[in-house]
Design brief:
This protein is of the alpha+beta class and 127 residues long. The chain has 4 helices and 6 strands; from the N terminus they run ααββββαββα. The chain has a single domain, classed as Aspartate Aminotransferase, domain 1 (Alpha-Beta Complex).
């Protein structure tokens, strides 16, 4: 990967190696399918998605790819489905040989949408 600071998700993707690009495009498509109204941004030099707060981030690294669900609770909620993958902190790691299933990405994003909606509603009640 080139050491270029991306300004858009398209910029980010255009700098990925050819073997990783199709996987990262699938991750992006799954996120946008589950959260069609999410704002697509670059945050921490990674693709990120916001709707009522941060939803998820994703990134490709030398030896793996990661989905960052911006919620440690996600790792607990989806613990069984995530067993085949390395998880720690707020990270789910996967590879081109062992990709994170699209249906699971969609479930995680929908869960994050619900979490953010609940936080937003709770803030309104406190006012």
């Amino acid at each position: 990967m080139k050491a270029v600071t991306p300004k858009t998700v398209d910029d980010y993707l255009s700098n990925l190696p050819a073997d990783v690009l199709p996987l990262m495009e699938k991750v992006r498509a799954a996120i946008l399918f589950a959260a069609p109204n999410a704002e697509e941004i670059i945050s921490y030099q990674m693709p990120a998605y916001k709707q009522n707060g941060m939803l998820v981030y994703f990134a490709a690294f030398k030896d793996h790819c990661s989905l960052f669900p911006a919620s440690k609770q996600v790792l607990e909620i989806f613990k069984e489905e995530l067993k085949p993958f390395k998880t720690f902190g707020g990270t789910i790691q996967f590879t081109t040989h062992k990709p994170l299933p699209v249906h699971l990405i969609k479930k995680i994003v929908k869960y994050r949408l619900k979490e953010n909606e609940e936080k937003k509603a709770a803030k309104k009640l406190k006012r």
